[in-house]
């Protein structure tokens, strides 16, 4: 049975199916905040919508107590002053359970159609969400708009299309007939019903609340599950706006809006998440964050299917290059982008202590390290331009980590505080780059130093660099690995190291593509082959275990005539 919203968005769905089959570039959402695409007043309207939320209670018509919560502070230096309706977890679970009945009965085309309509409405709110992401995460506006808006929407659509790709092959019924020789055949009518797992729990993160939150949210919805969205206390607003839009669409489509609810909390929410995650009604959990919390969920939320993206140590191996300047510029951009506060940002840069080969002759270790450090310093030399790349530090803990890391080795590029020209209280720090040695500093560089902290590490050889990269990815987790070499044999060895480490590999990036970027519909982000991620976030495995198929069968008259 079809659904009007499925029909409305079927063309987009078909194009998305083609995209995941061909893996080429495609996106229905413009990543540029152009007035020609979003409207002449879209930016001003979105900023005004964001500001209208400040210093007041966020309006959300869902089951709630009479209390409010919320303590978000913009990394650009001011409190948001937004209060959110406080909800009781048991009340939300009960509401989701009641909403599940009609939502399940509506079937796959309704789930897909409603999900796509929600996504379409979210796209219209890209500027409002972009400003909300900016002032909760510290991303500069362009990145907040792109990563928090269209790129996050791409990831949501990716989840929906993978769900549909699995669901579309399940028939509603079938006629089954088994020949019995001269006797009448055995005949049965079989009915197949897609049954969602139940209620999902999406645990948002403070750095990419939509980009990391949307895949789980939309994978749950597109497979017929209800969802409780629990944002990080430091980044509630982007997901609150998302939930508000989802509830509006559900209500207009004739469904109980409690298919999607928001569980906002204060920073000190104690054991709430742990208690909620172990509730028998919670059947799916999506989490992005620390290894400690992610591992706890995997080990303790036994009643749920748990998907996690955790901390990792991303690495770069430099063996040989044509042009060290272009290599250094590309690496410097990756280190500076959003101050290294990305799950894909590189941390360890391995260089043979005897130096590398270049098209212009040998280059010493010190010269390679100096080229990278110099490229970082040049990139952030103009504060007015640098802040549009660096953004702001999301929380004070990261600045404390920078101070701690400074003691680990020889400083190649010092982390400096910059004044933001528009926000006097912004917490802006340039990248810290240190020199370490593979022989003596493994205890330091085998752990994640989240934030604008990276190391140029002297190794005995490229072979040791690749061994370290593969072993650290396999043992400690990683989402990205990059290699620079003009030697095909080294590149093949790097490919093998990436397989051993279960990590995505980038080769000789010197242009407009950077190792911390991931393209929806093409790149398989978070392969799940190492401890940083326990499930793929860009393929059928991410959606297939969110539903079951229940069948019934009954004898019927055969159609075939025995010989």
Structural class: alpha/beta
At CATH level 3, the topology of the largest domain is Aldehyde Dehydrogenase, Chain A, domain 1
* Largest sheet, strands/sense/barrel: 7 strands, mixed
- For the record, the CATH class of the largest domain is Alpha Beta
CATH architecture of the largest domain: 3-Layer(aba) Sandwich
What best-fitting shape do the alpha-carbon axes yield?
globular
Question: How many strands in all?
Answer: 22
Strand percent estimate: 15-25%
Helix content: 40-55%
CATH evolutionary superfamily of the largest domain? Aldehyde Dehydrogenase, Chain A, domain 1
Domain tally: 2
Rg over CA atoms: 25 Å
Counted by DSSP, the helix tally is 21
State the end-to-end distance.
37 Å
| Mean of residue pLDDT values | 95
Biggest sheet: strands side by side, in what order?
17-18-19-14-12-20-21
Low-confidence stretches: none
């Amino acid at each position: 049975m079809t659904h009007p919203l499925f029909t409305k968005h079927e063309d987009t769905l078909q194009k998305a199916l083609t995209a995941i089959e061909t893996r080429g570039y495609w996106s229905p959402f413009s990543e540029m905040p152009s007035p020609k695409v979003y409207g002449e007043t879209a930016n001003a309207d979105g900023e005004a919508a964001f500001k209208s939320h400040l210093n007041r209670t966020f309006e959300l018509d869902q089951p709630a107590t009479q209390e409010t919560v919320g303590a978000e502070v913009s990394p650009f230096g001011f409190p948001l002053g937004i209060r959110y309706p406080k909800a009781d977890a048991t009340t939300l679970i009960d509401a989701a359970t009641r909403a599940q009945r009609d939502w399940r009965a509506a079937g796959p085309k309704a789930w897909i159609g409603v999900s796509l309509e929600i996504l379409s409405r979210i796209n219209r709110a890209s500027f409002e969400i972009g400003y909300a992401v900016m002032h909760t995460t510290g991303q500069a506006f362009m990145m907040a708009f792109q990563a928090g808006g269209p790129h996050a929407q791409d990831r949501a659509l990716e989840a929906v299309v993978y769900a549909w790709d699995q669901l579309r092959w399940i028939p509603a019924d079938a006629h089954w007939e088994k020949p019995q020789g001269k006797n009448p055949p055995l005949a049965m009518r079989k009915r197949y019903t897609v049954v969602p797992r139940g209620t999902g729990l999406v645990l948002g993160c403070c750095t990419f609340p939509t980009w990391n939150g949307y895949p789980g949210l939309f994978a749950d919805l597109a497979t017929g599950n209800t969802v409780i969205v629990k944002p990080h206390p430091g980044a509630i607003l982007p997901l609150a706006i998302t939930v508000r839009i989802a509830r509006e669409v559900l209500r207009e489509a004739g469904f109980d809006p409690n298919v999607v609810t928001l569980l906002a909390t204060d920073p000190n929410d104690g054991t709430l998440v742990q208690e909620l995650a172990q509730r028998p009604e919670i059947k799916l959990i999506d989490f992005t964050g620390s290894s400690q919390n992610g591992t706890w969920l995997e080990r303790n939320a036994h009643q749920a299917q748990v998907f996690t993206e955790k901390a990792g140590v991303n690495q770069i191996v430099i063996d040989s290059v044509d042009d060290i300047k272009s290599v250094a510029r590309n690496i410097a951009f990756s280190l500076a982008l959003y101050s290294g506060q990305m799950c894909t940002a590189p941390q360890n840069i391995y260089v043979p202590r005897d130096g590398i080969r270049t098209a212009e002759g040998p280059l010493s270790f010190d010269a390679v390290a100096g080229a990278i450090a110099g490229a970082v310093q040049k990139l952030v030399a103009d504060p007015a331009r640098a802040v549009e790349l660096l953004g702001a530090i999301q929380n004070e803990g990261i600045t404390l980590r920078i101070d701690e890391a400074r003691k680990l080795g020889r400083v190649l590029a010092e982390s400096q505080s910059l004044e933001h020209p528009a926000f006097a209280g912004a917490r802006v720090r340039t990248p810290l780059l240190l020199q370490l040695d593979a022989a003596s500093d493994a205890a330091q560089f085998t752990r994640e130093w989240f934030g604008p902290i990276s190391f140029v590490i002297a190794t005995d050889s490229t072979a040791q660099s690749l061994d370290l990269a593969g072993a650290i990815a396999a043992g400690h987790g990683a989402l990205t690995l990059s290699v620079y070499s003009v030697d095909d044999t080294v590149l093949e060895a790097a490919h093998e190291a990436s397989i051993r480490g279960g990590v995505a590999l980038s080769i000789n990036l010197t242009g407009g593509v950077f190792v911390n970027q991931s393209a929806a519909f093409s790149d398989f982000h978070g392969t799940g082959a190492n401890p940083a991620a326990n499930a793929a976030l860009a393929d059928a495995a991410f959606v297939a275990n969110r539903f079951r198929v229940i069948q019934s069968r009954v004898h019927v008259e055969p159609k075939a005539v025995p010989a």
